[in-house]
Each structure stands twice: as structure tokens, then as C-alpha cells.
Write a structure and sequence with these properties.
The chain is elongated. It is an all-alpha fold and about 150 residues long. It starts with a strand and ends with a helix. A two-stranded antiparallel sheet has the order 1-2. It has one domain: Ferritin, CATH 1.20.1260.10. Helix 2 runs parallel beside helix 4 and helix 4 runs antiparallel to helix 5. About 70% of the residues lie in helices and about 5% in strands.
């Protein structure tokens, strides 16, 4: 990935969460099982909240953080599955949860690789906070689905 400002990575992450929400909504319309549709509805809502969280952070974050340049941020590849057109309408809650974890883990790995770079203090702190938030949100998603 070429050099980017932190704001670009925040917008990318906001878009990623939007894409996941859209994907979960689309899957929900194709599923036959009510419990799976409910899980996907919950997952889509969760991703919309994260999308909004990143949007709000873009607006509120200090300019030195959002305008900081990252010379060589790691490449991010959308995980397999997110762009697939065909899905199994008989998927179980466990299978859709497995998809969600795979997508979350890809984003966490991206921020982990970013955090491993030598970064100035404020920028490093912001990336560490994003990484921790993504990890906590993954746990929250799993707990929320278990409570359905």
C-alpha cells in the first residue's frame, strides 16, 4: 500500500464496516432459518454502529493524528466471502459467526501489522486504541450472538 494519511485508513475502516453491514443484511434476506436471520440482523446493526463510531472518530480526532502520514501501511485484502454472490441459504448461526470472526480477524491483523511499525507517540496510541476497540467489539459481537 502506498503512503496514506491516517484519515484515509479511518475512512477505509468506516467503509469496511459499512460493507460488512450491507453484506450481513443481504445474507439475512437469503437465509431460510429465522435464528440465522436474527443473528445477521444483529451483526448488521453491530457493524453500522462501528461504521458510525469510525465516522465520529474521524471528525473528533486531533488533526495531528488524522493528518499524519504513514509511509508504508500494510496491504489489506478483503477476506474471501465478503464479495461472494452465492451463499448457502441453510447456513447456521455458527457458520455466520465464523464468517464474522474471519472478517474481524482480517481487520485486526491489518491494524496489528500497522501497530508494529515505528510510529510517533500520538499516532501509535490512536492505532493501539483502534486495535483494542476492534478486539473488544469482536468479543462483544460473539457475546451478543450467544445471548440471542
Amino acid at each position: 500500500m502506498a503512503a496514506h494519511q491516517m484519515i484515509d485508513l479511518l475512512r477505509f475502516t468506516e467503509q469496511f464496516h459499512k460493507d460488512l453491514a450491507d453484506y450481513y443484511e443481504r445474507l439475512g434476506h437469503e437465509m431460510r432459518r429465522e435464528d440465522v436471520r436474527q443473528a445477521l440482523d444483529y451483526m448488521a446493526h453491530h457493524e453500522r454502529c462501528l461504521q458510525l463510531c469510525f465516522h465520529d472518530y474521524e471528525v473528533a480526532a486531533p488533526k495531528p493524528v488524522t493528518q499524519a502520514w504513514l509511509k508504508n501501511p500494510p496491504d489489506f485484502q478483503y477476506p474471501d466471502g465478503l464479495r461472494e454472490k452465492r451463499v448457502n441459504p441453510e447456513m447456521s448461526v455458527e457458520e455466520v459467526l465464523g464468517l464474522a470472526i474471519r472478517f474481524d480477524e482480517a481487520l485486526i491483523a491489518f491494524y496489528q501489522r500497522l501497530a508494529e511499525q515505528a510510529l510517533p507517540g500520538d499516532l501509535r496510541a490512536a492505532i493501539d486504541a483502534i486495535l483494542e476497540m476492534e478486539r473488544e467489539e469482536e468479543k462483544r459481537l460473539v457475546r451478543g450472538l450467544q445471548d440471542l
